[in-house]
Design a protein that fits this description.
The protein contains two helices and no strands. It is an all-alpha fold and 100 residues long. The chain is rod-shaped. The longest helix has 32 residues.
């Protein structure tokens, strides 16, 4: 039986910011439609209260995504440790040195 390998996802199970944004827009439209049909619908009030929460989650997810992008773009490449204690006239390990 052959096993299928999958590549790991870049998001690691995190929901993208635009999904929260679209959800908040849908809640806003739904609240408006429910308020237009009735004056004090409990569902309309719940949708209206849930709308800013969706926008907050969208903003927070967007901010974290941008923060990760800036952290990865500012990462410095790894460099070899400096060899300040090595004498300039001495040769590297493994090479033949004729000056004594």
């Amino acid at each position: 039986m052959a096993s299928q390998t999958t590549t790991p996802s870049k998001q690691n199970g995190k929901i993208p910011w635009y999904v929260y944004f679209v959800g908040a827009i849908i809640y806003t439209i739904l609240a408006g439609c429910l308020f237009a049909e009735s004056d004090s619908s409990v569902l309309a009030w719940l949708c209206l209260i849930g709308t800013p929460v969706g926008f907050f989650y969208a903003w927070r997810a967007w901010k974290l995504e941008k923060q990760k992008e800036t952290m990865s773009s500012h990462a410095l490449p790894q460099t070899a440790p400096s060899r300040c204690d090595v004498n300039a006239s001495s040769s590297w390990a493994g090479s033949l040195s004729l000056d004594r």
